[in-house]
Write a structure and sequence with these properties.
Pdz3 Domain, Thrombin, subunit H, six-stranded antiparallel beta barrel, 16% helix, alpha+beta, 513 residues, 12 helices
Length: 513
């Protein structure tokens, strides 16, 4: 296996140099000695050990997401190719994006000689990481293995590994230029991110690429901008925490609060911040969150976290990472309590916050929905779903402007929705299947449902339960906008269920979460 760098001299130059060296009479040519023959291995000497395989493999994932326009169906499958990092424990680390909605995953050695199906041992879409295990036990035998690198600093030199079509390992030099806390692709959490400057070449297995620092895994590439030649990595600290979580079943914790900087002098005077004081202003407390349990309130000012003074942006001086957001202490602390210094009404006092993972039942609009079909309920041809961000992203990269704006608004400000017992989902009419029961309603879509048959609706399960009790022979669906109410003849809906399912090829009229 050859390993070359972008600065390697072409082989032709090296051969040309030797071609012009003066030489004596050429010796008689000898036939090549096969490796492992008695001539190649002196008597009594052990046979040479086979060369170790590189710490990277090709990962080919066949993915087939569900079609949210027809939630009972799937879209056409497609193939994603990436380069996985072989890590300790004979597993392969990739980004979660690579294998989202997978139907089949195959691992392939760099030289193409070995292949193995793989299964997912652990996956975390928040951290954008997945751990794969080959089903062929000997697939990774003899492979070098990487451990998460430690001690990275701004200025650290690294290499990004790619696999050439002939099996060579291409090492592209890179420099770590920025360490910050930034949103990850699912936008459900902000975690520490490494940004590298590098000039990557295009390869067909580049959806995810490992970056190494010496013999350690610096991170996995999750974004690359060819215009600025900048690459964003899921870094080694997040990888280490993910591996710990995978072993224990834990998840990345959150505080459940929003905050704003305190740069404006007039605002600082208003909230009582003295000259030289930093801190951030709490603008939102998520219902049921760790922040709410700790007693934090909107209008509080967080001055410090675990003894680290915050500046007006919420940054503190980390011994390892430099200036970074205090939310790093929350997300990477493993759920350990954090002591905050709070300013409230002119008084300063300590407050203990114990970060915790978000309860999925308390998320109004899920930030992602992968590896399972979206819930739906069909009533007389009216198709209902629960709001989630993956649905909105069906409108493309500009979904915040292109998707139905009422639904975009509800997703963006879901943390301000009133809480209450039980799930608090947003149920909406996503589409209408033309049928005898939906005549006149064909153009309705993206309408939020508030009640069905007089019962409040906060989930598809509640909608399905309310549909069992029509009022005076009719289903009355109340919605936020015009026409305000939709009426269906309950007897006709019941009689047309089977013909409707057969006509549209529906495997079932409902799939409840």
């Amino acid at each position: 296996m050859k390993i070359r760098t972008l600065t390697s001299l072409p082989a032709a130059i090296i051969l040309a140099t030797f071609a012009f060296l003066p030489s004596a009479r050429p010796a008689a040519a000898k036939p090549p000695v096969p490796a492992g023959s008695p001539e190649a291995t002196p008597a009594g000497s052990p046979a040479p050990a086979p060369a170790a395989r590189p710490p990277v493999v090709r990962v080919n994932s066949t993915n087939q997401p569900f079609d949210f326009a027809k939630p009972w169906d799937k879209k056409q499958p497609f193939l994603r190719r990436g380069t996985g990092a072989v890590i300790e424990g004979a597993k392969v680390l990739v980004t979660a994006e690579l294998v989202a909605d997978h139907t089949y995953i195959e691992l392939e050695s760099a030289d193409g000689e070995l292949k193995s199906p793989a299964t997912i041992a652990a996956i975390d879409y928040d951290a954008n990481l997945a751990l794969l295990v080959p089903t062929e036990e000997k697939f990774l035998a003899g492979s070098q293995m990487l451990a998460p690198a430690t001690g990275a600093r701004v200025g650290t030199r690294a290499e990004i590994l790619q696999i050439e079509s002939n099996g060579d390992i291409l090492r592209t030099p890179a420099t770590l230029t920025t360490i910050s806390v930034a949103p990850y692709p699912m936008e459900s959490i902000a975690l520490v991110t490494y940004r590298l400057t590098t000039a990557l070449q295009t390869r067909d297995n580049s959806f995810v690429l490992p970056a190494i620092d010496g013999d350690g895994l610096l991170g996995l590439l999750m974004r690359y901008d060819s215009r600025t030649q900048s690459a964003d990595l899921v870094p080694a600290p997040v990888i280490s925490r993910f591996l710990e979580n995978a072993a224990s079943g834990a998840r990345f914790p959150r505080a459940g609060l929003g905050f704003a900087p305190t740069r404006d002098p007039q605002f600082r005077n208003y909230i009582g911040l003295a000259n030289g004081d930093g801190g951030v202003y709490v603008t939102m407390i998520q219902p049921g969150s760790a922040a709410e349990s700790a007693g934090l309130r909107e209008g509080d000012v967080i001055l410090s976290a675990d003894g680290h003074k915050l500046d007006s942006e919420g940054l503190y001086d980390d011994a390892a990472l430099g200036k970074i957001s205090f939310t790093h202490l929350v997300s990477m602390g493993g759920g350990k309590p954090i002591t905050l210094e709070i300013l409230r009404g002119g008084a300063r006092f300590p407050l203990e916050l114990t970060p915790a993972p978000t309860d999925p039942d308390k998320i109004v609009s899920a930030p992602y929905l992968f590896d399972k079909g979206p819930g739906y309920y069909v009533l007389g041809g009216l198709v209902f779903q629960e709001l989630n961000r993956t649905y909105l992203q069906q409108w493309g990269g500009n979904w915040r402007k292109a998707a139905p704006q009422r639904l975009v608004f509800l997703d963006a400000f879901q943390d301000e929705a009133p809480g209450g017992p039980g799930p608090r989902k947003i149920v909406f009419l996503s589409s209408v299947l033309p049928s005898p029961d939906t005549i006149g309603y064909e153009d309705l879509e993206s309408l939020v449902v508030t009640k069905l048959n007089g019962r409040p609706v906060h989930s598809l399960a509640e909608l399905a339960e309310a549909a069992k009790s029509p009022v005076n022979g009719f289903h009355k669906i109340e919605i936020e906008e015009d026409p305000r109410a939709i009426y269906l003849d309950a007897a006709s809906v019941s009689a047309n269920q089977d013909p409707l399912a057969k006509h549209y090829g529906l495997p079932a009229l409902e799939r409840l979460p």
